[in-house]
Amino acid sequence: MQMQRHAEAMSVLPRPVWWYALDPENRGEMGIGGRARRMGERFRAAAVVLALCAACSNSESPAQGNPVIPRPTNLTVSIEPSRTSGVAPLAVFFDATATASPVSARAFHDLSYQWDFGDSGSGTWASSGKSRNADRGPVAAHVFEKPGQYTVALTVRDMGARLVGDGGIDTAVKSTVITVEDPDVVFAGQQTVCASTGSDFTGCPAGAEQVTAAELGPLQPRLASGKRLLLRRGDQWATTTGLVIRTPGPGLIGAFGTCVSPDARGLCANDPKVQSLVDTLNVIDMPAITGEKNDWRIEHISLSGPACDQSSGTGCGTAVGGLKNVRQVLLNCLKVEGFRVGLGTGDWEIPNDDIAIVSSEVSGANVNQVYIGASRLALLGNAFHDSPDSHVLRVWQAHLGVIRHNVIENASTASGLGRHALKLHGPAADSAVPKTERLVVGDNSFGASGPWPVAIGPQDAAANESVKDVIVENNLFRSATTSTPVQISLHIWAQDVTVRNNVFIGTGATSEYVGIDVSRRGVEPAAARVSAYNNTLFRAETAGSAVLVNAASSDVTAVKNNVVWGPPAASAGTGTVQSEANLAGGASPLFLDAPGGDFHLGAGSPAIDTGVALPVYGDFGGVGRPQRGGWDIGAFEAP
Ligand SMILES: [Ca+2]
Fold first, then answer.
1. Dist. CA 619 → ligand 1 center (Å)
2. CB atoms within 10 A of CB 14
3. Comparing C-alpha atoms, which of 59, 71, 93 is closest to residue 20?
4. Is there a contact between 370 and 356 (Cβ–Cβ < 8 Å)?
């Protein structure tokens, strides 16, 4: 890989000075009964900030003005950002997978990682309502929309911090600074080109070139390194010609003019509209630029095109396509309708790197709404929906990836072929390219894509594709209103998969509904080291069955702290599972309003405090675990 990386691994153990500092964002994360509770009183809402005298730069500083107490830690915290500077909007992928703890053999799965991106004005995600300024997980990504210097802090904890309650020993914070440049400076004067179909250039930055064009093609000469092309909001281009990005950035294709009526994702009702009139056109094409980073961002454009249905794909274009050996690209706040594939293409022989698709809505593409693969892939806050023919989102490679806060639904609406909302697979196990591994699929809502809404593993039974080290957490799996009934919400044909804090709603599924199936699809490496912790499964029907985990793998799947509830026959685990502390059938978990979708635990629930201690540090909604006298059962921890 030719990316310049900024590695900041550090071993904190031998460093001379440690600091405690109060951190109100971590409220509820600390301490359980006994000593833990006492320590929790003292250090409630506390995090450890490590201030290294040897690194008294702005990347390692104690929280402002709080009392500091020297403490040791056994954790080695690493943050590797995909970049440390660039022009806004700037997407940065953060890799903390080199973080280690002597007491956690599986640091990727078993440590708590909490990110504060230092960007408090970044708002909330449309789908999950969670803050964009915070996230969990050993990999994360963030888009910095405004210029400035941002201190990104990662707080890591291990089980010692929970069980012993002494957060000072097993908690550590590391930070890094991201410098985001001002686009009005980087693209000053004639480095910005404003394009309109008419003569109104209201809102065009001062000093910019102004161009009138009825098609996109004539704007091609304006695409160059260090340039910004802005299309007028309110204008519509019906075009037979597109744009090809042939030069490395920094570059930007976006919009000028006042944003009218932004939706929950930030898409403006008057964002410039581009309608492709040609089946074969990639409206914006991004071929490889040999040896260079692309460093482009494309945002705030509404693109529509013919829903090309040639089965071979030959001759069908995309809205933004050709992503092949492309690096450092952000697709932000795009609205895409139609085409054969809305966004993406490419293949794993020439992989992409550091690709982010954020806050975009893609629908109506005939085959896949998004077909993408990359190292350091971030898909955040999008709505991908309505694939007439096939899968909604197909990720063919994610070597380090974050798929969070998306709504992904409605596969095979016309064909009835029963394709997936998310198909996540990867390169062959014996190939030399980066494998699909080390990724988080979290806070998504998957729906209306039976019989198997989410599939993690090889693309088919004949493919020897390995997928491993995946965290599936805080997702909502819905079964109702699907053209093909759901049988299994989540297929796992992969290794080292942790499934935690998810909600499975089996209502509307086939009579024998399974939330998670762990098995071997064909010739891929057999499933191993799969865990299902703290999930909630509910179905409303009065007949049929509901099983959270069915495992046919030779390796035993751990099934712990889960709740399964509904009138049908209920089971937490069948097959080769190790079950512990689950609540299935029998006593009601006393959900607050299960038919209404509220699975919080009511007072007196037998699920409160009756789970076993697990490396699950937060719940579906973000409440820290454990609360009160121990871990609860299910996806929600009673505060
Ligand atoms: Ca509890």
1. 11
2. 6
3. 71
4. no
Instruction: Compute, in angstroms, the gap from residue 626 CA to the centroid of ligand 1.
Output: 5
Asked if residue 500 lies in contact with residue 535, where contact means CB atoms within 8 angstroms, the answer is yes
Give the Cα separation of 620 and 599 in Å (integer): 10
Q: Which two tokens stand for residue 231?
A: 């299309």
Q: Output the CA 31–ligand 1 centroid distance in Å.
A: 11
How far is it, in rounded angstroms, from Cα 588 to Cα 605? 7
Which residues neighbour ligand 1 (ion) by CB within 5 Å? 609, 626-628, 632
Please give the Cα distance from 339 to 290 (Å, whole number).
Answer: 28
**How confident is the model over 316-326, as pLDDT tens digits?**
889 998 888 88
Q: Calculate how far, in angstroms, residue 101's C-alpha sits from the geometric centre of ligand 1.
A: 25
Whether a cis peptide bond, with omega within 30° of 0, leads into 615 is no
Judge if pTM exceeds 0.90: no
Q: How far is the CA of 34 from the centre of ligand 1 (A)?
A: 14
Q: Prior bond to 89 cis, omega within 30?
A: yes
DSSP letter string over 243-284?
A: EE--S-SSEEEEEES---S--TT---TT--EEEE--TT--SE
- Nearest CA to 335 out of 303, 306, 379 is that of 303
CA distances from 627 to 194, 306, 314, 604, 619 (A): 55, 53, 56, 15, 10
In sequence order, which residues have a C-beta less than 8 Å from that of residue 56 and are 6 or more positions away?
none
- Going by C-alpha positions, the residue among 33, 69, 36 that lies closest to residue 50 is 69
Alpha helices (H) along 379-473 = none
Instruction: Using the mean position of ligand 1's atoms as its centre, give its distance from the Cα of residue 402 in Å.
Output: 29
Give the Å distance between the CA of 72 and the centre of ligand 1: 28
Q: How far apart are CA 23 and CA 41, in angstroms?
A: 14
Distance 2 CA to ligand 1 centre (A): 47
Confidence of residue 600 (pLDDT cuts 50, 70, 90): very high
Could you tell me the distance, in angstroms and rounded to a whole number, from the CA of residue 604 to the centre of ligand 1?
12
Give 448's contacts (C-beta < 8 A, 6+ positions apart): 409, 410, 411, 421, 478, 480, 481, 482, 483
CA atoms within 13 A on the CB side of 598: 8
How many CB atoms sit inside 10 A of residue 128's CB? Answer: 23
Task: Return mean pLDDT, the chain.
Answer: 86
Size (the chain), residues: 639
Q: Which helix (H) or strand (E) holds 35?
A: helix 35-43
> In this model, does residue 441 exceed pLDDT 80?
yes
Q: How far apart are CA 365 and CA 304, in angstroms?
A: 9
- Give me ligand 1 centre to Cα 37, in Å: 13
| CA separation for the pair 605, 586 (Å, rounded) | 12
In the reported structure, the alpha carbon of residue 6 is separated from the centroid of ligand 1 by a whole-number distance in angstroms of 40
Name residue 95's amino acid: D
User: What is the whole-number distance in angstroms between the Cα of residue 636 and the centre of ligand 1?
Assistant: 9
Q: Report residue 416's pLDDT band, with 50, 70 and 90 as the boundaries.
A: confident
